[in-house]
Amino acid sequence: MQTHTPPGKNNITPTTTRYYSKRSIFLALALLLLAFIACLPGLISSQNVMSVAVIPTQAVDATFLNDWDAARSLLLERQPPLWYNNHPLLASSSAPMLYPFSVLYYVNLNILLFTAFHLWIALVGIGLLAKRIPSKTGRIIGTLAGFALILVGLPALRPDYMAAMAWLPLSIWLPLCSRRYIKMLGLGLALGFITLAVETSLSLVLLGGVSLWLILAQAKSGKWKSKAIFGGLLWAIIVLALALGLAGPQLFPRLAYQPLNYSAPTKLEPQIKGATLLGLRQVSETDLRYTLQIDSGTSRSIEMTVPEQYDSGWQAQYSLPDEPNKFSEAKLVSTSEGWRKISLEPPSKTSIITLRLRYNPLSFTLGLYATFLSVASMAMILLVLGWVRFYREDEGDHPLRRIVKNSVTPMFAQLAGKVIDFGFAFISLRLLGPEGNGRYTFAVTTWLFFNTLADFGLETLVTREIARDRSPANTNRYFSTMLVTRLSFSALSLPIAMLWVGGFSLTGEMTGDIALAVALLMVGMMPSAVSGTLSAAFRGNEKFEYLAANQILGSIIKVPLGLGTLLIGWGVAGLAATSIAVNLIAMSSLWTIFTREVIKPDIRKGFERTLVPAMLKSAFPLMLNGFLISIMFKSDVFLLFPFRGDIEVGLYNSGYKFIDALLIFPSAITLALFPLFSTYSRDSRENLMRAYSEALRLLIIIGLPISAGTLFVANDLIGAAFGDKFLPGGAIALQILIWFLPFSYINGVTQYVLIALDKQRYITIAVLITAGVNIGGNLIFIPFFGYIAASAMTIATEVTLLVIYAILMRRIFAPIPFFKTMARPAAATLVMMAALTLITVVFGFNNFFVTIIVGMAVFLGGLALFGGITGEDMRYLRKVIRK
Length: 883
What we know:
Layout: H1 14-45, H2 62-76, H3 89-92, H4 103-106, H5 111-130, H6 136-153, H7 159-173, H8 180-197, H9 200-221, H10 226-246, H11 248-256, E1 271-273, E2 275-284, E3 287-294, E4 302-309, E5 314-320, E6 323-334, E7 339-344, E8 352-359, H12 362-390, H13 399-455, H14 458-468, H15 472-505, H16 512-523, H17 525-540, H18 544-567, H19 571-597, H20 603-606, H21 611-644, H22 646-662, H23 664-683, H24 685-722, H25 729-737, H26 740-756, H27 760-812, H28 818-842, H29 848-865, H30 871-882
Antiparallel strand pairs: 1-4, 2-3, 3-8, 4-7, 5-6, 5-8, 6-7
């Protein structure tokens, strides 16, 4: 039966759409011109440069203007406006310093552009609101009245109030928009701009009012049902979280600011006991360097009082002449006058020290990370929208299209998760310190071992079985059987883990917070077991995009929960408790998507007790491989902890954080090449060797210069990322561990070649031998050399695995082309190391960015000189550049 589209519905032609688009652009430009014209008379007649209003304006506080101008000066000098003229500028001021559109004022210190832009935003918002009025007459009257009010009244406000009020009409219109995700993103941005534009108290009032309006609008559209009201409340929470996160760098310092009494001194010179001031160098407003000569005598304690305003964001550190970039912590407190008092006791080997006072408030760092999370969340929403809009899956799709989709989405999620997790570590390790980080590392490593055993390789096995037969009955059968089995194993793991913890308590290193953290992580295994079972079913049905989105969502949720528990003092136990909440949210979201996109599982009908033994028998080799790999790379934690204590575990783990982040390269490349390896292993061994050699060459070109360059910047990396508490131990661990990287890159791609050749049973034997070498070496050397031995044994383990793989490849396929793939990159790396040694050691010039730039330039130049860059590489590069 033929159907016809009713008149006026879905019959808009492309020509009509282009007409409406051109008309919208014309109206927007007309409104912008109107905004500029409205500003000009006031600009010409007003004596106040901060106003462009025709009517009398609100007086602009001189302090407000001075603070805004000071922020401009600091930003132009590429410094955050944290401290200026002996007071915390960002925290104590109400000026919109970090409001993005303040740049319109910063460019020429004139309010015309700033006012015109916000008039335009307000006019657009009023126009959109007027379109919601039912009658044509009402729309005309409402538009004219709104325009008149905006054009006359808005420029009369103080600039920050004007900016906030300009975004208000748009914020009122957005909850009425029918497109939910546009509503969320637009309202999050608008409310974020309001929070950045105006003082904290008013911004919170406006945010509360708009949030209430959003809840009412959602409830009305849902006919005031409880589900609609709850949905509106949830939307309001999400929007507020996005808005407050965007405004974090400015909002958090102002919320945390607690003004102290400060008495102006009669003398500005520092008062020093135990040393003499040789000089003062002001690097910036937030970085002061004092050179002190220690007085001769029996006591080496130094006390220095700086008669400048104290704030909790100030930190004191000192360095020695032979290591000017390595800083140790000093004590900094406030005197009764509100001045800064520093106490330290430098080592006896030196007579001169450099004392650094640095202003780096934690609230600003947390705000920056909150902004990063908000932007990442918005980007994820846009990616999901784009995926839903443009991607359509069909059973008749070419296999390559599915391979690309199934490899790119996990790679993107893994990369995004690594970035978010590393940012989380950037703050959490500073709060935990080496000792707390060591304790949490022990708890997580314990959880990892038991989680590997509880999974028992079932996730991989069930993925394979469902992929072979994606019928709802088979999916439900394997899903239900795996779910019951995994939940049973997870429940059984808790008492065994507590016995494990009890055994370690005999060493005297086990503390109550570690035991509680292990227990909480083990409880979190229950929802994690459900999520793992769901993940296996999603992978079997090639629904990788949902897993990718859920992985990023979990990483984003983990951050505010984890940081919140650390800030209120719950420590490692609080971090472990957040894993339960994150796992529950991840499980709930995956279950909801699973029931909509795959099947609605019937566990009673699907569970087959007779299937369990067969599944466990098939999955045992997979479990054994995973368990041996965990032993190979994580057993050193269980030996470091009882022999050397939690501090050394924390230092070792701080270096390992960078290694974990850098392992994304081989993972991405090998996953992308594995389908090609599998095809060539059947059709053309020659092509397989060519692809394998090119992959090795690419990974060596990435891995060798990173390893060599890290030797020279490890101290800066650890200090900047995790704080000076992790120096020098964390830097030493990183300098050793980094040489694990090139061997790991080679082993990673070689392992996938062996799997493509269907020789994975040999991998188990190789891993078993290597794990034995690792455990034996760690048992011998860790009691004597601690984390240094653990770092060195990590390299030795990877070298042992490479030797075994080389023997296997020679017998099964072909020798690993070491010389062909490594000679030229290795020569270029040696030249790079020589150049960096000349700069940093011989000439004593240590600058992180200069070291990176010079190292990259010398390596690439050496690679080209030695023929490491082929003509085919250049042709491909030119092709990419043209695209």
